[in-house]
Amino acid sequence: MGAGNVFSGKHANGELIDVTISLEKIQYEGRASVIATIMEASRQKATESTNDLLALVTEMSDSSIMMTNDQCHIVWVNHAASELSGYTSQQLHGKHPLFRINTDSNMSEIKRLRSALSNAETYQGELLLSKANGRHYWIKLQAKPIRLDNGKNGFIFIESDISSRKSVENKLRAKNNLQRAILDSAQQIIISTDINGKVATFNNYAAEQLGWQSFEVIGHSSMDTFIELPEYARFAEHISQILGQDIPHDYNSFHLATTQLQRVEYDFIFKTRQYDDLTIALTITALFDRSGNLDGYLYMGRDITQIKELEAQTKRHQQTLEATSQIARLGGWELDIIKNEIFWSNEVYRIHELPLHEKVVIEDAINFYAPEAQPIITNAINLAISEGTPWDLQLPFITAKNNHIWVRAMGFAEHVNGQAIRLKGTFQDITAIKEVEHRATESSKAKSQFLANMSHEIRTPINGIIGMNELLQLTPLTPQQAGFSQAIQQSSEALLHLINDILDFSKIEAGKLKINPQYCELAQILDELYTEIQPLLTKKSLTLHILPVPITHLTTDPLRLRQILMNLCVNAIKFTETGKITLSFLQSQTNRLNITVTDTGSGIPDEQVALLFQEFTQLDATSTRSVGGTGLGLTISKQLVTLLGGEIGFNPEYRSGAEFWFTIDTQLDTAVASTQIAYKQHTLLVVGDPSYLAQLTAHINIDHYHIQLVENAHTCMKFLHEQLLNKDFKAVFIAQDISGISGVELVKAIRAQDMFDGLYLFLLDAQLSESAISNLHHTGLNGYFSDFAQQNMLTHILIKMQNPRITPSSMPFYTQQSHQSADIQVLLVEDNEINQAVAIHMLENLSIGVDIANDGVEALSLLARQNSRYHAILMDCQMPKLDGYETTKLIRTDSAYRAHRFTPIIALTAHAMEGDEEKCLTAGMNSYLTKPINSSRLKAELEKWL
Predict the structure, then answer these.
(1) Is the Cα dihedral 523, 525, 526, 532 positive or negative?
(2) H runs (alpha helix) in 420-557
(3) What angle do CA 892, 897, 901 make, to 5 degrees?
(4) CA distances from 857 to 297, 456, 654, 864, 898 (A)
(5) Is 70 exceeded by the pLDDT of residue 94?
(6) CA–CA separation, 65 vs 141, rounded Å?
(7) How far is the C-alpha of 492 from the C-alpha of 465, rounded, in Å?
(8) What 3-state DSSP class applies to 840?
(9) How far apart are CA 539 and CA 533, in angstroms?
(10) What does DSSP assign to residue 369?
C-alpha cells in the first residue's frame, strides 16, 4: 500500500467507490503516529481531467498567461507568453513580471499596478512592455490574485497584445491632433453643428473673434448665439431669390439652402460677446454620415469687417472721384499694348459722347482727334513707347456726336525689360477752360489795348501842350508870359508824371510790365536821375548827396532802377523843406546792392508807417493837400523792386527825417570796386587796312571794346572760327575793297555758314548807287557806313547789339550818308494837327525840312511818287486808315517803295507800353521815340541817323 494507490471502498450510502489512501508519519504527543488521508478517486480523476483540459486550453491560448508564487516570481508561463515576450520559459521563470515594463510607460499606471500587487487586488490596464529584442509592444493586462497551496497569494497575469490597436489609436490620435491643430491654427472661423443646430466644433480663431470659449458653446449654443433674426431674414431673402421659393427666416434656412445648394456663401453680420458687429464671409456646407444621411453643418468664415469698411471707403472715394471726374470732366484710360485692349473710365466715354463700355479699338480712339491733331498725338504715343517720354498735350477733338471740343491728353508708358507693355493716362475735356482762357486772353488784350489807347489818347494832347509850350518859350515873351509858360511846363510835366504812375500801376496789375535786364553803368543811371530831379531840388533849395558806390556796373533794368530812385527821391523832396537828400550804397556778399534814400524832412509818424506801400494811399489828408500825388509811387516802387529780385522797406528807427531802403540783385559774380575797370569788353573785328581800325577807334570808347584787325578774307574766316565760343564777339566791320575778294562776297561767305548767325555784319567805305544799296540787305548785311563821321549812329548800333532781344536777323538795316544839314529832308507821318505843328516847328528850328502825311495811306502815296530818298521818316504808330506798323512793313517789302526801303524810320508813339519797342523793330522801324517829344530828344535821335 502506498500513497496514491487506488482501493475499492464502500460509501456510507452503500455505493461502491474507488478511494486513494495517503499515509504520512507525524509525531503526536511524543509518540510516532500516522495520518491517513482517504480521497474518492473518481473526483480526483475528474479534477485531473479538467486540469488537463484547462492546461491544454491555456497552452493553446493566444494570450500570454503567467503564474507567480507568493513572492510574485514567475513559476509558470504558457507558450504564448514566450512567443509574445520573446523570452523562453526558462528565462521568464523566477523573474518579476514587471521586469519587462518600458520606462516610457505611464508612471501612474505602473503605480496603480504595483498597488494592486501589494494589496492582492485585481488589476486591469494597458502597459507598454519591452520584448527580449528591445522592441516595444503594448498589452492589455489582467492580473488576478490566486490562493496557493500554501495558503498564500500568488497572481495570474493574462496579457493580450494590443500593439496594432494602439498603433491605430496613435495614428488616429495624431490625425485628430493634426486636425485639431489645423482647426485651431486656421485664421478662419470654423464651427460645426449637429442636425439640431447645437455647436459641435468651435475653433480657437472663432473663440478669439467672437469672445466665447469653446467649452461655453460646444453642446450648449447654436448659431443663434452669433446671428440675429434680421440676418437670417436677409439671408433667407437672398436664398429665396436663388431658389425661387420662400424659406423660413431662421436657422432652418441653412437646412433648405444647403440641402438644395449643398454649399452656400453669404456675408453675415455676427454679434460678438461684447455685442460688436463683425462682417463674416460665411461658407455653409452640409455634413453627411457614411449612410448619406444629414449629420450637421459646417460653417467656415473669414472676418472681412475691415475689407468691407475699405470697400465702403473705396466706394465713397470712387463715388467722390466719379463725381469729381464729372465735374472736372476728367477720366482715366489704359492700353494693354500686348493684348491691344483699351480701358476707358466712364468719364472718358462721356467726353467721347459714346455709350458706356462700348468696345473701342486704339485706331478709333485716335480718329476722334481733329485731323491736324492726329499726327501730334500719334507721335507722342510713339515717343512714349520708344523712348519713355511722357506727354501732356492740349488738342482739338471731335466727339462721336460731331461736337468740336478741346481735350487735355496726358499719358506715359510702362516698360518691362526695356519693352513697353502698357500705356496709361488721363483725358480731360478742357473746352470750358479754353473758353475761359480765350475770354481771359481777350480780356487781357482788351485791357492792354485800353491801356495803350489811354496812353495814346492822353499823351497825344499832352504832347501838343508840352510841344507848343516849348515852341512858345523860344519866342520873345514878357516876364509875365514867361512865368505863365513855365507854369504850363511844370503842370504838364506833373500831369505826365501822374499819368505814368497810373499806367505803370495798371501794367503791373495786368502783369504786362516786364523787366529788361542789361549790363549797365550805375554812374550813368545816377547822372540821369540827378538831371531829372535837379529842377525840383533847385526850387526848394535842397541838395542831393550821392555817396561813393561800391560797384561801377551791374546787370539790371536801368529804366526801372532809375524809376524806383526817382520815386523815392521825389517823395523825399516833397516832404523836405530844408536840408538834403542822401543816396548811400552797400554791396553784400550775395551780389545784392542795398540802396538807401534818406532825407532831413518831417519824417513819418509811427501810426502812419502801416499806410506805406499801400496803393492810392497818402499819409493823411493834410499831406495830400500839401504835396499831392496819386499815392502810387511807393506801391509801384515795391512792385518794381520785387521784379528786380529785391526787397524794399522803411526804417522806423531813423529819426532825423525819413529813410527808405531797397535791394536789387546785381547779377554779378563778384563785386567790383568803383576804382577798378569794370567794363565788359565786347570783341569787334575790322577787315581791311589799318586806316579803318584808326577810324573806328576814334569814334567809340575803346575801354568798352576789344578791337581786332585782319587784312584779308582768309585771316578773317580763321579768326571767326577761333572765336566761335566767345559770346562777347559781336560784330564784323568789312571794307568793300580787300585783298582777293570784295567785302560783299565775304559777307555772303560768312552768312553761308549757320554757325555765324549771331554776328552783326557791316560794310565800310562803299560808294554804292541807290540800287546797289537796296540789294545789300539781301546779302545778310546789317548796314553800311560811307564813313564814321556820324558817331551817334555808330554808338546807337553798338548799344542795340547789347540788347538780348535783338538779333542780327531782326535788326533793321542801317545806312548812313554824308550830307549837309541844309539838305536834310524828313517825312512826318502824323494824324494829329497839333502834333504836326509841334513837330514842324521843332524840325524847322533844327534846320530840317519836313513833308507831311496825315496817315499811312497818304504816306505811301507820297513815297510812291517821290523818287529821291528822305533822310528819315518820323512815323506815328496809331493812325486811321493805315497805322504806322503796317505802313512801315509795306515800305520795307513792297517794290513800289523800293527807293525808300532802307530809309531810317523813327517811330513816334504815345503808347509807351511794354513790348512797343519790339513791335516797332519787328515792323521794320529803326528806332523809337515816346510822346511827349521835346526838341532835345528829337535832335538826339535824328543825329543817330543823319
Answers:
(1) positive
(2) 431-473, 479-509, 522-539
(3) 40
(4) 103, 20, 61, 11, 16
(5) yes
(6) 10
(7) 7
(8) helix
(9) 10
(10) B
What would the grid cell of residue 515 be? 523787366
Residue 669: is its pLDDT beyond 50?
Answer: no
For residues 757 and 729, what is the distance between their CA atoms, to the nearest angstrom?
A: 12
Q: To the nearest 10°, the Cα dihedral for 617, 621, 626, 629?
A: 20
Angstrom distance (rounded) from CA 360 to CA 354: 10
- Residues near 605 by beta carbon (within 8 Å), at least 6 away in sequence: 619
Q: 3-state DSSP helix/strand/coil percent for the chain, to nearest 5?
A: 45, 25, 30
Q: What are phi and psi of 396, to 5 degrees?
A: -70, 150
The answer to whether 412 and 424 have CB atoms below 8 angstroms apart is yes
pLDDT at 42: 58
The three-class DSSP label of residue 352 is: helix
Encoded amino acid at 28, one letter: Y
DSSP string, 44-80: HHHHHHHHHHHHHHHHH-SSEEEEE-TT--EEEE-HH
Q: What is the mean pLDDT of residues 611-631?
A: 57
Report pLDDT for 705: 79
Q: Name 903's Cβ contacts closer than 8 Å, sequence gap at least 6.
A: 869, 870, 871, 872, 873, 891
In terms of pLDDT, which residue wins out, 513 or 217? 217
- Is the model's pLDDT at 620 over the cut of 70? no
The stretch 323-345 carries a mean pLDDT of: 85
Domains and CATH numbers, the chain: 1-58 (no CATH), 61-168 (3.30.450.20), 186-303 (3.30.450.20), 310-429 (3.30.450.20), 515-651 (3.30.565.10), 682-812 (3.40.50.2300), 821-943 (3.40.50.2300)
Q: Give how far Cα 285 sits from Cα of 200, 369, 370, Å.
A: 14, 56, 60
Query: Which set of grid coordinates corresponds to residue 727?
Result: 559770346
Contact by Cβ (8 Å): 138, 128: yes
Cell numbers linked to 466: 508840352
Give residues with Cβ within 8 angstroms of 865, minimum separation 6: none
Please give the pLDDT value at position 407.
Answer: 94
3-state secondary structure of 20: strand
d(C-alpha 930, C-alpha 503), whole Å: 14
For residue 120, give the nearest of 58, 72, 65, 159 by alpha carbon: 72
Average pLDDT, the chain: 82
- The pTM of the whole model exceeds 0.90: no
Is 522 exposed, middle or buried (CB count within 10 Å of its CB: 0-12, 13-18, 19+)?
A: buried
Measured CA to CA in angstroms, residue 563 lies from 304, 459, 557, 633, 937 at distances of 72, 19, 10, 9, 19
Q: Per-residue confidence at 431, pLDDT binned at 50, 70, 90?
A: very high
Give the separation between CA 668 and CA 673, rounded to whole angstroms: 12
Amino acid at 169: E
Q: What is the per-residue burial (b if ≥16 Cβ within 10 Å, else e) of 648-671?
A: beeeeebeebbbbbbbbbbebeeb
| Mean pLDDT value across residues 675-686 | 60
What mean pLDDT is predicted for residues 181-203?
84
State the Cα–Cα distance between residues 545 and 583, nearest whole angstrom. 6
Strand partners, 92: none
d(CA 115, CA 273): 49
For residue 713, give the amino acid letter.
A
Quick: pLDDT tens for 908-923: 886 555 567 778 888 8
Is the per-residue pLDDT at 36 higher than 50?
A: yes
Cell 431658389 appears where? 243
Confidence (pLDDT) at 635: 83
**Is the peptide bond prior to 548 cis by the omega test (within 30 degrees of 0)?**
no
Looking at residue 30, its amino acid is G
Which residue shows C-alpha cell 494811399? 617
Looking at residues 667-683, what average pLDDT do you find? 49
